[in-house]
Amino acid sequence: MAISQKLQLKQSQGLVMTPQLQQAIKLLQFSHLELSSYVESEIERNPLLETDDSPEGGAERRQEPGNEQSAADENKAGTASEGGGEDVADLRLDGNDSAANTPLDSDYDNNFSDDTPTTSQPQAEEFQDSGWANMGAGSAGGFDPRDFDSQSQLTAEKTLHEHLSDQMHLVIFDPAERLIAQHLIDAVDDTGYMRLNTDNLADRLGAPTAMITKTLSTLQAFDPPGICARDLAECLTIQLREKDRLDPAMEILLGNMDLLAKRELAQLKELCKVDDEDLTDMISEIRDLNPKPGDGFGPHLMQPVIPDIFVRARPDGSWHIELNTETLPRVLVNKQYHANVSGTARSDDEKNYIADCLQNANWLVKSLDQRARTILKVGSEIIRQQDGFLAYGIQHLRPLTLKMVAEAIEMHESTVSRVTTNKYMATPRGIFELKYFFTSAIQSADGGDAHSAEAVRHRIRSMIDEEKLDGILSDDQIVTILQAEGIDIARRTVAKYRESLRIPSSIQRRREKKQAL
Q: Assuming Cys at both sites, which of 39, 340, 360, 480 could form a disulfide with 329, CB separation 3.0 to 4.6 Å?
């Protein structure tokens, strides 16, 4: 067979993951905190990007002559309505309804009406004739009496660390011990426990372990009682010692907290060598103690769950769905700055850099817009599928899978999975993670519609909460009741759901109810 050379054309299709496509996919699974951090890093890296923090969305700057900027105000990403069995999504971006069908690689320009109202800053005429008017004049950091809030100074609460530091300065005078004490105080968490290994601190400071232990003992005598303890048993021991109630029997009880949690009262009586009455009194004393001595000091910094989607009921029974504008970053592309710097670029490297910055900035804006539309589309379909849950409660939660939502909105399952990760929805029944609405199905015993696993768990908890001392339900009895209600479920499934809800067995529940009585 002769070997020869020839030219051949071949056409094929393939999926190429470009960096821009990878960025768009990565943005889908970001929470609003991760998204804000990512956008801030992109703004620092790209000189053509900037944030728009003004209440008017930067309208005043864009109305100035000769200032033209490209913007994608993602907080106007739109609303959706669901009702009457229809999936209706009304997305509006910059007042242009046709933007919903715009390709991802198209260009976005700002179109603003000339009738956009502008607001002027109020003039503080009452300060012009006073001495405050000239204070700090000509300085951006000048003092403004209107910015001073005296009420906030009067109502400021002392934090736990400040409370401990004040006591430390009155008791400890040695400089070395003060240094150790300050490190120990800094390691105290909001509940009052000292989360630091003393051996590691000794190696870090080069101090003897005995000195650190002595300093810790001094701190544990501070107010409130039980502060700076390393575990629950030590915290309770400190409080009982201050009340002069730490006898040998109580020490044995505190050393066997695991048995107390399991309600092994017979074994505890044998270990403590007390009768039923004495053991009951000891347990009552422990219940009167404070397991978190640091809770009463200062405002606790708690990060609330901020929903990404709001769902509100309409008067006609349908549901109004909209994105939370507070979680959507406002990103602008400054085309005026691009025009200025592109005209001064001389070398090819400078021109390529400016072109890449413009391309990346436009793609980021379009990716953020596409992310908002996708979240709203997935959220609308979830509400359409789980309409019964919003109207009647958790017992009407339907089985739902990623595949069902993906087929309904014509997207891939992986896209739906990314969208529902770390996203929350505020409904009239509370704030839920989007993953909460996806539950497995339990077949019906009478051949009807399947039941949601979450609804079955809720039914099991309700039955156990309503049981009396003389009517403690075993797992077999729960299975019988559920099957009578048309739920085909096995005993091991009931046991698994009960354990996931942290509900003890029927024997332990009966023992706890007797002890409570």
A: 39
CB count in 10 Å sphere of residue 67: 14
Cβ(231)–Cβ(195) under 8 Å?
Answer: no
Q: End-to-end alpha-carbon separation of the chain, Å?
A: 98
DSSP E strands, 206-364? 309-313, 319-323, 330-333
**DSSP count for the chain of H helices, then E strands:** 22, 11
Q: What is the H or E stretch that residue 432 is in?
A: strand 430-433
Q: What is the pLDDT of residues 28-81, one digit of tens each?
A: 889 888 999 999 999 999 999 988 765 544 433 333 333 334 333 444 444 454
CATH of 160-249+282-287 among 1.10.10.1330, 1.10.10.10, 2.60.120.10, 3.90.180.10: 1.10.10.1330
State how far the Cα of 37 lies from the Cα of 30, in Å rounded to an integer: 10
Cα 325 from Cα 299, distance rounded (Å): 27
Task: Give residue-wise pLDDT tens across range 273-317.
Answer: 888 888 888 988 998 999 999 887 765 555 678 899 999 999 988
Report the C-alpha gap between 339 and 354 in whole angstroms.
10
Domains of the chain, residue spans: 160-249+282-287, 442-516
| E strand spans, 271-318 | 309-313
Q: What's the burial of 394, exposed, middle or buried (CB within 10 Å: 0-12/13-18/19+)?
A: middle
Supply the pTM of this predicted model: 0.58
Q: Residue 337 is encoded by which pair of tokens?
A: 């700055």
Which DSSP symbol is given to 123?
Answer: P
Domain 442-516 matching CATH 3.40.50: the answer reads no
* Three-state DSSP state, 309: strand
160-249+282-287 with 442-516: one CATH topology?
A: yes
- Residues facing 433 on adjacent strands: 424
d(CA 129, CA 329): 42
- Count of CB atoms situated within 10 Å of the CB of 479: 20
